[in-house]
Structure formats: structure tokens, C-alpha cells
Amino acid sequence: MKFRLTKWIRLQKITICLFILTCFICELQAEEVEQGTYTDLTKALQNPSKVRVLNLSGQELATLPKEIGQLQNLQELYLNGNQLKTLPSEIEFLKKLKILRLYQNEFSSAEKERIRKALPNCEVDFGDK
What we know:
Elements: H1 2-34, E1 37-38, H2 41-46, E2 53-55, E3 76-78, E4 99-101, H3 109-118, E5 123-125
Parallel strand pairs: 1-2, 2-3, 3-4, 4-5
């Protein structure tokens, strides 16, 4: 009887260890998929070279700091649903930017044109029809 109980306890320990290992591997895979994606500007600016995607949609931003130009590897920038009227001139330093979404902001026609000219190789979308 004692032998069976000891075997049972070992089997439970092995099962628990396998479960923990599986959870750890799943967590690592999830981090890998999300790596380079940020939703917090402060955190993004702490690791500027690692930022690939920055989603600041719906954060009620009235301005964007000039430090945005430090995100040299940024490829996608989402600024939908804010209160932006202008973007800093430093956006022209975002040479790798491919997608810029600016729906539901308050840009003038002149500002829209300036942004498009500053980012000629970027798909800039103001949500206009």
C-alpha cells in the first residue's frame, strides 16, 4: 500500500511539473508574438529601438511629444480617436513607418497635407472618404 501511495505522489508531482512547464512555454510564445508592440508611450520611449508597433488609439491625446521621432524602427502607428490637431515635425524621422492611422482627430487640411509630405513612403489614413 505504501509503495502505491509513493508512486501516486510522484505521478502527481510529475503532472504538476508538466503543467507548469506547458504554461511557461505558452507564456513565452505569447510574449514573442507581442514583442515590439506597445500601447504605452512612456514604456515605448524607454526602449525606442525595440518599438515596431505603437497603438495609442483612444487615449485622449491632445499632443504627441517630439520624442516620437526617436522610434527609428517604428513600422505602424495608430493614433485613432484622440484630440490631435498637429503632429510634431519629428515624425519625418520615422523612415520605417509604413502605416499611420489618424481617424477621429481634428487635423486641418493643411496639417493633413504636411503629414503626408513628411511621410511619403507611408500609408497615411485620416479616415476621409
